[in-house]
Amino acid sequence: MADDSRTAYRTCPLCEAGCGLEITLAPPGSADTVQRIRGDRDDVFSRGFICPKGSTLGHLHDDPDRLRHPVVKRDGVFVEVGWDEAFAEVEARLMPILDEHGRDACAIYLGNPGAHSIGPMIYNRALITALGTRNRFSASTVDQRPKEMSAAMMFGSVAVPVPDLDHTDFLLMLGANPYASNGSLCTAPDFPGRLEAIQARGGTIVVVDPRRSETAVKADRHLAIRPGTDAHLLAAIANVLLADGLAAPGRLAEHTNGLDELPALLQPYTPETVAPVCGIEAAAIRSLAHDLASAPTAAVYGRIGTCTQEFGTLASWLVDVVNLLSGNLDRRGGAMFPMGATGQPSTKGTPGSGRGTRFGRVVSRVGKHPESFGEFSVAALPEEIETPGDGQVRALVTVAGNPVSSNPNANRLDAALASLECMVCVDPYINETTRHADVILPPPSALQKSHYDLALLNFAVHNVANYSPAVLPLDTDDHGVAMNEWEILLRLTAIVSGMGAQADIGPLDDMVAASVAGAAGDELLAEVADRRGPERVLDLMLRTGPYGLTLTELEANPHGVDLGPLQPDRIPDLLRTPSGKIEALPDLMRDDLARLDQSLDRDWASSLVLVGRRHVRSNNSWMHNVRVLVKGRNRCTLQVHPDDAERLGLTDGAPARVRSRVGEVAIDVEVTDGIRPGVVSIPHGFGQNLPGVRLRVAQEYRGVNTNVLTDDAFADPVSGNIALNGVPVTVEPV
Ligand SMILES: Nc1nc2c(c(=O)[nH]1)N[C@H]1C(S)=C(S)[C@@H](COP(=O)(O)OP(=O)(O)OC[C@H]3O[C@@H](n4cnc5c(=O)[nH]c(N)nc54)[C@H](O)[C@@H]3O)O[C@H]1N2
Ligand SMILES: Nc1nc2c(c(=O)[nH]1)N[C@H]1C(S)=C(S)[C@@H](COP(=O)(O)OP(=O)(O)OC[C@H]3O[C@@H](n4cnc5c(=O)[nH]c(N)nc54)[C@H](O)[C@@H]3O)O[C@H]1N2
Ligand code: SF4
Ligand SMILES: [Mo]
Q1: Is the shortest distance between the CB of 720 and ligand 3 below 6 Å?
Q2: Any atom of ligand 2 within 6 Å of the Cβ of 174
Q3: Average pLDDT, stretch 177-198?
Q4: CA of 596 to the centre of ligand 2 (A)
Q5: At how many degrees (to 10) do helices 506-517 and 533-544 cross?
Q6: Which residue's CA is minimally distant from atom 28 of ligand 1?
Q7: Residue 439 contacts residue 93 (beta carbons within 8 Å)
Q8: What does the CA dihedral 238, 176, 215, 232 come to, rounded to 10 degrees?
Q9: Are 501 and 91 in contact (CB under 8 A)?
């Protein structure tokens, strides 16, 4: 390697694990900018771990399909333009719609990479406020909304307990496959290594999953549950703890409301009653409850499979009910509360109680979907575009989202987006969604952005803070210098505020900083006066956060700052409920138990159902353009159990037609006994092969979009989260 190559350290922004990367860069002027990326062995959290995606940040940066400057659609084709021209187009196309039809005529959709990017994390709020629309949507209602709601109801804020992976003796994991995903709502670089360490110190891992996932293979026990029945299973575990005298909430009893009502409400859920529903033997359920209770420490953790299903909020709530009843909430080795350095909701406000969180304050115009955290379920998006009348959505702004790939009933949404009068996307690619845009405003590549994971460090299994400056400069070409993502968002904010496309964004940035500085105001702002943009806001958040850090300290520690293991006994101070207690039985959950009760009588075994899956070499919809990741065998297959294959006349490797209420796809069959009979699986995020998409590698792939099959009318009614798993389908040979 040339001597004048240099090394940079940067946290990987691709998934929630947040691994530290060591990036070797070629001398300026060389052809390949990034020579090598490997795990940063000195990173205080990830200690050198890296997955196959982390080493591809250079590929993403160099991808010829990544947009380097804005494009505007003229006569149906995208034309490259300069930044000023692009913003002038946004103003000319969007503002007349807002002026004539009002603010609700423009919806906004926020996608997943925005949660890993400091610009959107800080400045989306300003854009949303300036836009003034009630039609706000995000990937959260195809992801974790049930968990956010259950935490908010129980603890008063989105303080989500995470399994204390590094100290627990017993881990019950439902609907999560960290060997592929590297974890979610549980930030843990080298999640697989941490699981292996549990077993190495004599602990036990139980995986509940309809598929024998990569994680299930490694577990001590695998329970192949019927999709959508985790709430039944968890209710039965809680019931056994209560009925067999094993419930021991310990010191939390005096800080908890509603415990006395639980035994009667959960009494119908005996292991014998739920066994035929879950497809798990009663004895296995009973012994699981007993093992949980007798383990020195234990943690229950549920993720995608427990959220993106029909009883998502009940299942998410019951996860923490079991943590509470088994005496494992808020203690070492159990389910604990992280404390991020920037001050998550639970560390703001007065310790011990608060206003709590209210839901359903407004409902959507057409489907009457209740709001949560200021957003409607994505189920409401297509119908709001399609249905004429006052308040009809005629324009859409997307930031880091690909809803045509990620949202249910994809064909319906795709057609709805095609009918919009105006669409503006902040996105680096022309994909399934952004092909409908009038203007696409591309953010810089990850290597050209600074990074601090404002969201996910609040879900970390060890308290750390890790800041990375930009590794590479912004692109420069005939259209001038590219723009930072936060500047793009502020220029959009200026436009929708009526300040015009040419407005100086400096004062808007000052306003954002002032609102973060809050009461402490001027004095604090003076301390960070030499910073601008996200760095100034981050510095303010660190200074006012629980550790009183500064950005300068983080800059001096490129491998991160270790803030120590998670702390026990955060309750009651952490609580923000009006009662100042844990609400073990929130009203919405008491009401929804009636729905669960009714489902006990359902003929569960009669239908074939679809679930999803992830692979370590993909990341939702947008990394299939990286050839080193997608090469090799086709991963977008329909997994079918041999018994079902025989019954349905399906052959391994041959195509099958899969139909749901809303759509159909043709896909290659993969016969495997690694899936429960009665269940089939297709991974999401494939199917880039649509007209107008410019992802040349991804388009060669034979994948299909599984969300053509998932149903916008099949959701968890409490949270509005779509039930992407457990979707009834029929399958036949093509
Ligand atoms: N069937 C099924 N569907 C699912 C899921 C499932 O398990 N099964 N999972 C769901 C989950 S958990 C999620 S989070 C959602 C994700 O849903 P979305 O966020 O809607 O979709 P992504 O595929 O993550 O697409 C991300 C978009 O952001 C763009 N992008 C990438 N990096 C950046 C950046 O730095 N800045 C900006 N501005 N844009 C960027 C990409 O080009 C792409 O257009 O999908 C959900 N959909
Ligand atoms: N490689 C890779 N990593 C990723 C992503 C990616 O696309 N690729 N996406 C990132 C994102 S946005 C997220 S949210 C996380 C998600 O991270 P995880 O929550 O770990 O998600 P999955 O890997 O999809 O694992 C979900 C498991 O749930 C099972 N399942 C399906 N239905 C049910 C059910 O009803 N009950 C139970 N108990 N299990 C069920 C599935 O078979 C699957 O094995 O991953 C993140 N990391
Ligand atoms: S596990 Fe996630 S954060 Fe770590 S290298 Fe892979 S994609 Fe990046
Ligand atoms: Mo997600």
Answers
A1: no
A2: yes
A3: 98
A4: 23
A5: 10
A6: 400
A7: yes
A8: 30
A9: yes
The CA distance from 147 to 721, in Å, is 10
The pTM of this model reads 0.98
**Does the CB atom of residue 23 touch ligand 3 within 6 A?**
no
Q: How far is the CA of 179 from the centre of ligand 2 (A)?
A: 10
Q: In what order do the strands lie in the sheet with 77-80?
A: 77-80, 71-74, 439-441, 422-426, 395-399, 106-110, 136-138
Residue with tokens 């019927």: 226
Residue among 145, 179, 184 to mutate when testing ligand 2 (max atoms within 8 A of CB): 184
CA 410 – ligand 4 centroid, Å: 17
For a mutational test of ligand 2's pocket, the pick from 49, 209, 232, i.e. the residue with the most ligand atoms closer than 8 A to its C-beta, is: 209
Residue 158 lies in a domain: no
| DSSP SS3 for 609 | strand
* Tokens 């590094």 sit on residue: 166
- Based on the fold, state whether residues 582 and 560 are members of the same structural domain: no
Decide whether any atom of ligand 3 lies within 6 Å of the 183 Cβ.
Answer: no
Task: Say if CB 381 and CB 415 are below 8 A apart.
Answer: no
Element holding 323 (H helix, E strand):
helix 312-325
- Confidence band, pLDDT 50/70/90 cuts, at residue 164: very high
- The domain containing residue 24 runs over which residues? 6-62
Q: How far is the CA of 274 from the centre of ligand 4 (A)?
A: 29
Distance (angstroms) between ligand 2 centre and the Cα of 643 equals 25
What 3 state SS string does 359-420 have? CCCCECCCCCCECECCECCCCHHHHHHHCCCCCCCCEEEEECCCHHHHCCCHHHHHHHHHCC
82 C-beta neighbours (distance < 10 Å), count: 14
Residue nearest to atom 29 of ligand 1 (CA): 400
Distance CA 505, CA 84 (A): 13
Residues 493 and 373 in one domain: yes
Range 329-341 average pLDDT: 97
| Separation of alpha carbons 60 and 53, rounded Å | 10
**443 shares a domain with 535:** yes
Q: What is the DSSP string of 3-61?
A: TT-EEEEEE--SSTT--EEEEEEPPTT-S-SEEEEEE-TT-TTTTT---TTGGGHHHHH
Choose the residue to mutate in 142, 213, 662, 706 for probing ligand 1, maximizing ligand atoms within 8 Å of C-beta.
Answer: 142
Distance (Å) from CA 12 to ligand 3 centroid: 6
Residue 242 predicted with pLDDT over 50: yes
Please state the atom number of ligand 1 nearest to the C-alpha of residue 613.
7
Q: What angle do CA 71, 142, 307 make, to 5 degrees?
A: 155
Is 231 touching ligand 2 by the criterion CB < 6 Å?
no
Residue 506 pLDDT > 60, yes or no? yes
Q: Is the CB of 45 under 6 A from ligand 1?
A: no
Cα 633 to Cα 179: distance, rounded to the nearest angstrom = 19
**Same domain for 528 and 417?**
yes
Q: How many domains does the chain have?
A: 4
Task: Assign 443 to helix, strand or coil.
Answer: coil
Same domain, 532 and 557: yes
pLDDT surpassing 90 at residue 347: no
**70-74, 361-365, 519-523, 692-696: segment of lowest average pLDDT:** 519-523
Q: Is residue 614 in some structural domain? A: yes
Angle, CA of 491, 496 and 498, to the nearest 5°:
100
